[in-house]
Specification:
5-stranded antiparallel β-sheet, alpha+beta, single chain
Length: about 130
């Protein structure tokens, strides 16, 4: 399957990344491993974390790439791979998922939306969605 991605150098993106097992709490149970995975990748593929929310079975992140950066896919792949490989070998995975580097994260798909948050009027946050 070919996924359509919007690559914009220096862009700000909203991501949702899900675990394979949506009944799992791996992300919060192994938050230190997740932090270290993100730190390691961030040093090698710089990005700015605008916001990050970790829930038991998925996470949301708002990231801004450097002015000359546009490749967020490989960064996410590396974060997922480092996190998955650092997990205890007791996690239950299907045979096909055991062969994948980012096994804990299911099919490897993540959602992304390029956006700009513009203004707060009263108590209302106005978000503008940018489309190419």
């Amino acid at each position: 399957m070919r996924y359509r991605r919007n690559y914009v150098a220096g862009g700000t993106y909203f991501f949702t990344v899900n675990l394979l097992n949506r009944n799992s709490a791996l992300l919060v149970e192994h938050i230190g491993v997740l932090r270290e995975s993100v730190r390691w990748v961030k040093q090698r593929r710089p990005f700015y974390i605008d916001a990050w929310v970790v829930l038991p079975d998925h996470l949301h992140a708002v990231l801004t790439l450097p002015d000359d950066g546009h490749d967020y896919s490989n960064g996410w792949c590396e974060i997922k791979k480092r996190f998955s490989k650092s997990l205890p070998k007791t996690e239950l995975l299907t045979d096909s998922h055991k062969q994948k580097a980012s096994a804990a994260f299911g099919n490897g798909v993540f959602g992304n939306i390029p956006f700009v948050t513009s203004v707060i009027i009263g108590t209302t946050l106005i978000t503008f969605i940018l489309t190419p």
